[in-house]
Specification:
The chain is an all-alpha fold and 50 residues long. The protein has one domain (4-40). The chain has helices spanning 4-16, 30-33. The chain is 34% helix and 0% strand.
């Protein structure tokens, strides 16, 4: 099984090869977001406590 954080990392690498950048990382699972540096996290999100 492929982990979501691994998919995001591979996507970042592919985008980097064409001078593109993936940022504002967001996920419903904190462990995915924690795999990325804080400067790449989406900051505009709010917890809805649903």
């Amino acid at each position: 099984m492929i982990k979501p954080s691994q998919v995001l990392k591979e996507t970042k690498e592919m985008l980097a090869s064409s001078n593109r950048r993936l940022y504002k990382i967001a996920s419903n699972h904190n462990n995915v977001v924690e795999d990325f540096p804080p400067e790449e996290h989406a900051k505009e999100l709010k917890d809805q406590n649903l």
